[in-house]
Amino acid sequence: MAYDGVTLYHLIREFKDLLVGGRIRKIYQPETDEIRMLVNVGNQKYHVLLSANASNPRAYITEKIKENPSAAPSFCMVLRKYILNGTIVDIDQHETDRILELSISSKNEFNDTVVRKLLVEIMGRNSNIILVDESQRILDSMKKVGTTSSRYRQILPGRDYIYPPENNRLNFFQVDEDSFNEILLLNQEATVEKTCVQAFLGISPAIAREIAFRNGINSNSLISELSKKQKQYLYESFNQVVNAIREKACPNIIYLNRKMVDFSTISLHHLREAHRIEVYSSVSEMLEDYYFKRDKAIRFKTRSANLRHQLDTLLKKNVKKLKNLQSDVETSHKNEKYKLYGDLITANIYAIEKGQETVTLANYYDPAYQTIDVPLKVNRTPAQNAQSYYKKYNKSKIALQYLEGYISETKEKIYYLESLLNGLEQSTELNELDEIRHEFLHSEFNKKALSKEDRKKQVLSKPLHYLSSEGFHIFVGKNNYQNDYVSTKMGKDEDCWLHVKDAPGSHVLIVANGRFITEKTVLEAGVLAAWYSKSKHSSNVPVDYLEFKYLKKPSKAKPGMVIFTNQNTMYVTPTQDAVDAMEVVIDND
């Protein structure tokens, strides 16, 4: 979700309660587009983050401290000159737009008290942080905007500050029914969502969809398609949402299938059914958690991209190799006819003359005794032709023996590479990614020399920990190292071990703990085994299950590779709902 005017409205109310009257004791700039301020309010200290990052512009009180660079950038020095040790006297929002205004009382060069403003424009790639004096003249800005970038609005020291263009958008707190209907009249060919976003300052697409949802209509419906009654109800749902904004903030992060997809400071009814909502006690806490997790996800994706590419390339190479080997096997089986040709020529050697291109012979191996045409080399005797066919047959027979070994070896490589990719798919933490990378670097596929850091023993991450509906603890390995730990270190003889049949996937362990493991719990664990495998999107997935005592890891086997006996097989259809319904246990030790 965009950091919209609604989020900023609720953040400013929080800022007013906490920061007004506070003194700015420290200012530093850890990033080129980020300012941090330490504000003292009585005995309390607050670290205020202000960012003009093009991808993640934001403002909130943070608990995570960054290192102060040794040399302060010029903009940071200007802020220290004009507002360091100043007192925050007011915090406001321009209309309902995404502009945060911090009014700071400090002394000028004549020791007179003046109020300067630090303006934070949270507007995507146009985001900026600007310091203006008491007459709205720009003292400095984080990003300079000259005439080549904007004819309407230059952001340069000495220029008068001009607010960003509003494009006829209205403060949604000041909209009555007549002006709302006038907006609908002017946007007949636009959708409900687009109309709300373009007509009102600070309304994001998510809030626009909420307005449509509370009216019971599709946000992609054209205004011209709405009946008079629906338009009337649309204003009522708009009013409902505006009133919800006026009320106390309800900061929350929205998840879908364990993936963070959005945040909001009001309750979004249209996301309640299919999504999981995590509620926070403050807007700043929500924003910090959201951007921290988002940054971690981006860093994870970036760091995993190269490894994923390497694994994909190796997998495609081995799949192609397997296909070629299987094609060679088919060719070798077809070469069985050469033995037949040799036998028939030998049996009829005195009836064949040198120089013939072909000979028609009765196939005495055929119950119907049908004839067969046998090609011959004209420059060879019948005996030489027979020997040539026997030689081709023997060559194919020997090749077939080697091919079977190559095929088995290539299949093992494919399975192992798929297990690494499956681990990569299941991983969510950077330390889990490091485990997979460490395993790959120590595998036969890595041809590069290991660095000193890579040779270090890996600190193992923890497997997933679930609690079944009947209270049994279930552990799920997310990569081969975790699978090894689950399958060699955790289990006891009476425990139950599960794995999807004939496909890469997680090792799953049900801990009996002196209890009889029920069929219901085994089925729940089977769903987990299928879900955390290559077959997660299939139906009727076969899952093997057995007592832990029948499980064994061969000596020198690759990580995650085990053998077992005495298994039974069940069939399950894994779904996200079934997995989400299971309780997750957070292990802090």
Please explain how this structure is put together.
The chain has 589 residues and is an alpha+beta fold. The protein is 38% helix and 22% strand. The chain has 13 helices and 25 strands. It has helices at 5-19, 74-83, 177-186, 192-199, 205-215, 228-246, 283-334, 336-347, 382-426, 430-441, 480-490, 519-531, 576-580, and strands at residues 23-31, 34-41, 44-51, 58-62, 87-93, 99-107, 113-121, 128-132, 138-141, 170-171, 200-201, 252-256, 259-264, 276-279, 358-362, 371-375, 464-467, 473-476, 496-500, 508-511, 541-547, 551-552, 563-564, 568-572, 583-584. A seven-stranded antiparallel beta sheet has the order 24-21-19-20-18-17-25, sandwiched between helices. A hairpin with an 8-residue loop joins β15 (358-362) and β16 (371-375). It is elongated. The model has no long low-confidence stretch (mean pLDDT 90). Associates with stalled 50S ribosomal subunits. Binds to RqcP. It comes from Acetobacterium fimetarium. Belongs to the NEMF family. Pfam families: NFACT-R_1, NFACT_N. Keywords: Protein biosynthesis, RNA-binding, rRNA-binding, tRNA-binding.
Structural category is alpha+beta
* Number of helical elements: 13
General shape: elongated
Poorly predicted segments: none
Give the strand order, joined by hyphens, for the main sheet: 24-21-19-20-18-17-25
Family: Belongs to the NEMF family.
Protein name: Rqc2 homolog RqcH
Subunit structure: Associates with stalled 50S ribosomal subunits. Binds to RqcP.
Keywords: Protein biosynthesis, RNA-binding, rRNA-binding, tRNA-binding
